[in-house]
Fold this sequence. Notes:
Elements: E1 2-7, E2 12-40, E3 43-70, E4 76-104, E5 111-133, E6 138-163, E7 169-191, E8 196-199, E9 205-224, E10 228-245, E11 256-269, E12 273-284, H1 288-291, E13 302-304, E14 313-325, E15 331-357, E16 360-388, E17 393-408, E18 416-432, E19 435-444, E20 447-449, E21 452-454, E22 457-468, E23 473-480, E24 486-495, E25 498-507, E26 510-517, H2 533-536
Parallel strand pairs: 13-16
Antiparallel strand pairs: 1-2, 1-25, 2-3, 3-4, 4-5, 5-6, 6-7, 7-8, 7-9, 9-10, 10-11, 11-12, 12-14, 14-15, 15-16, 16-17, 17-18, 18-19, 19-22, 20-21, 21-24, 22-23, 23-26, 24-25
Amino acid sequence: MNRASQDPTLLQNTQLNQNGISDFTRHGIQTGCSIDWAITPKDNITAAFSYNNFGNNSIGALTRQTLVQDATTGNQLSNIYNFVNSNSNFTSQVYDWNVNYKKTFAKDGQELDVLYSASNANNYSYYSQAQKYISPDSVFNGSNGKSQGTDRQTNIAISYTQPISKDVIFETGAKTVLRQLNNTSDVFLLNPSADNYSYSTTQSSGLTYNRNIYAYYLSLTFKLFNFLDVKGGCRYEYTDTKASFSNVNAVSIQPYSSFIPSGIISHSFKNHHTLKISYTHRLQRPDYGDLNPFLNVSDPKNITTGNPSLAPEISNNIELGYNKSFDKGANINVSLFVRSNLQDIQSYTTYYPTYKIGDSTYTNVAISKRENIGREDNYGANVFVSVPITKKINLRSNISGFQRYITNYLAPNSNISGFNYRANLNASFQLASTLSMELFGNYNSQRITVQGKLPAFLTYNFAIRKQLFNKKASIALTATNPFNKYVKQATELAGTDFTLYTVRELPYRSFGINFTYKFGKLEFKKQKEVEDVNLTNPPGTGS
Length: 543
């Protein structure tokens, strides 16, 4: 990583060069079960439970050069080399469960759905970092911290569908989402003279976060002029958030209401043509990680933090789409779209010559946090094509391109625009009745952000699958980027008084083997009740 910055008060240019390597590992396990119970022909209950345990660990080391020059003469003022060791890990355990009740009625299409779902997550993370001079070999700065917390979410939803006539359908429903988060972060700072770590009251923090969302929606589907299929709806949402952060002034998050309309107008022509236009209005709320003002100083030159003042991102999308299906199975879908985000949320980096956190002062530091940067507008097109070349070969491709305009309200005269695109190709081959192969490739171009460009990305996969034991089992061999050990990514960012250029080489090549076996279908169904002939045909009444 190379970062150049300028301190206008001292007329100095500072260049930070970092070169390092890290060993990153991941682990995970996922399991679950579900039950389906048909109580009666018109009453059904499904229930499911799942458990996920996943995490990662990273061990890194880097050399760092800090070069300071006189901004006027270019003369070198200082040139300091040091070495940084770092370690971090994260673990999460998540329990999810849900129960759904569905009631159908005598009238076709009339339904009642009631859903209860809950999620319970326990999260733990840890980091440590130590900085030392290369010559003489001595540690001059270090810290470690651990963060543990819980994330509880409960969803309750009810929906009802009522066909009014053959071409008119009314839908309505309500939903509430209750979320409770608690997190404690303990940070310990190195005292070099005493060679020990002491608890930091200024960098440690606690978070209590409660967000309740109450929503109600209604929609109507009908035909217009016996020619157009129309579906229009509106959702009302009320969001009430309360948050408490230690070591931060009182945070006041005002509750807010939102009306979210949507609509689709379509027409199906003969020979499988469909043309439609749609409008959607969406609300993207910031996550608690975006709001948490905890300062992560695991890399003292690149500090990350949250922003309790974030407002929700508001999106308005208009899309014109055309779909054509062919008799031999081919399909093409073309769409033109306009997507506008207000109060757009993006990561934003600010450079500080000095930055004080409690009793610690950091020099030449970049602070990154999520901000409502302003407005983002995207104008583009998307094309999806699926073509069966033969009965045993099928090709699918998706290509998307759009022009992005970002209006930055945080820094005047720093608006940015650029063209972004992505393309993928999937090819499947049925080599035999029990043997198949699949190839997949995906490319994303560089993507502009409010302060620069994020890297392009190319990945490709190969897979071959063999079915066994009368197709009850299968074994598959997979390969991801087998011809390239690393994926090289270059990031360019620029802001007031700094430029940042980062090159990362990510180990992406992998090989895998997968075995599955289907034991059959286990159903829990209530036995059909035997009719009592004494009730249906009492003695003496005849048949």
